[in-house]
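[job 4471] stage=fold_predict status=RUNNING
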Amino acid sequence: MDITLVGAGRAGRSFARALADAGHEVRLVHHEDLDLGTPALILLTVPDDEIAALAAALPVREDVVLAHVAGSRGLGELAPHPRVALLHPLVALPNDTVGAARLKGALYSVAGDALVTEVVATLDGRALRLSDEQRAVYHATAVVAANHLVALMGHVQVLAESVGLALEDFLPLAQQALGDVVAMGVDRALTGPASRADMATIDAHLSAIPESERAAYVAMANVAFEVAERRRLTSHA
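[job 4471] inference complete, writing structure tokens
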């Protein structure tokens, strides 16, 4: 399939490599280049806020599918084009080498023209069709699962360095906890003071850690309390 990607950032470069490896004819251009020819698919891999303006600037054609890869946006961003679609991979794309590898066999949120489902199949991926109402929650969940997890590790790093330790000292513990979630689920994997309602320990933590980190600690402790309460209610059901 002849595919042109517009946007040469991490997403664009990752998709370009993965699609080329899957046998497609791929052209990757910067978003300033609007001379795109007539490929079967134009895939916009630009930042979310640029999609609508870029789509409006492109010639309207009946024989080209225009799609984007933003999980937070729907098909309305691509008006007034008649054949539109979206193709959002549920993977992190930190660079094109890692990103291209992860795109193969990934789960994709798709909508619109069936051509993108064919593209997913060539990448050995799985296509998931969501309603417009589901899409925002889907994307929020993806952000929490990836971006917020990285931010949480930033919180760990600051706490560790405040007593002369390093993030790397705590990564095995984090990996063990995530492994426990995989093996036994969230409720059973939860340990620590919130899981046993040990407020004295939590208060001691809040007194000891840097003031700048207390709000993050409290927010996550509250989430842990909710998990513990859900576990308690389930066990007594």
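[job 4471] summary: The longest strand covers residues 84-89.
[job 4471] exit 0
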